[in-house]
Amino acid sequence: MNKETLVAMAADFASFLISEGFVGKHKARNIILYGSVPRGDFTPRSDVDIFVDIEAPSKKAEAEANSLADDFCSSLWFQKWRRLGVKNRISCIAGRLEEWKDLHGSISANNILLYGRYSGMPEGRMMSIFSVENVRPESKRVFVQRAIFGYKHYGKIYRGLLGKSGGERVAKGCFMVPVESSKTMAEFLRRQKVEFRVFEASIPG
């Protein structure tokens, strides 16, 4: 399992928190991935550690964050990541970051910002992470794949949208591009009537 896949899965969880109304209800300022994944020393048994920085922390918000992490790992959202071999579970803490003195230093040193603007973090590359799956029929899947990832024909390499934009393939059906290229990629997928999800993350460069 590579780091980029776990980052993409964590960003998917951030989208899940938004869609479930947690971010708006608790006025979340930032959603931060920290711990072993940003450091790169994770194992297949490591938790994917996420801190949701909220304005008004409470026991209720903490319990809801834990519950949503469990819901995500048993939801259809997570099935894609399970098919890609992800066995790591989400560990989610919700609170005011300034009040978590034991975590503040660790988070500031090794983190990936999934949502918000946390000024205490080192700057990184803002990337748009796309998740695409179940493209049918086969002829359409091949066309879309070649257009995005490029292909080789009679020894000649044809670059796709990903290569032209400086993006990277993360896993099957998942790739990321610089945010400035996000609109071009999204417009292409819409023209081809391909369903996709997209979310942004700050990736240390």
Structural overview:
- This protein is of the alpha+beta class and 205 residues long.
- The chain folds into two domains: 114 residues, Beta Polymerase, domain 2; 79 residues, Alpha-Beta Plaits.
- It has nine helices and ten strands.
- The strands form three sheets. A four-stranded mixed sheet has the order 3-2-1-4.
- A hairpin with a 2-residue loop joins strand 8 and strand 9.
- It is elongated, with a radius of gyration of 18 Å.
- The chain starts with a helix and ends with a strand.
SSE layout and pairing:
Layout: H1 3-19, H2 22-25, E1 28-34, H3 36-39, E2 48-54, H4 59-73, H5 76-83, E3 90-95, H6 101-109, E4 111-116, E5 125-132, H7 138-149, E6 151-153, E7 156-158, H8 161-165, E8 168-171, E9 174-178, H9 182-191, E10 196-203
Parallel strand pairs: 2-3
Antiparallel strand pairs: 1-2, 1-4, 5-9, 5-10, 6-7, 8-9
Tell me the count of domains: 2
Radius of gyration: 18 Å
- The strands making up the biggest β-sheet line up spatially as 3-2-1-4
CATH class of the largest domain: Alpha Beta
* Proportion of helical residues: 40-55%
CATH-defined superfamily of the largest domain: Beta Polymerase, domain 2
Largest sheet: 4 strands, mixed
Distance between the termini: 20 Å
Concise overview:
By secondary structure, the protein is an alpha+beta fold. The chain has helices spanning 3-19, 22-25, 36-39, 59-73, 76-83, 101-109, 138-149, 161-165, 182-191; strands at 28-34, 48-54, 90-95, 111-116, 125-132, 151-153, 156-158, 168-171, 174-178, 196-203.
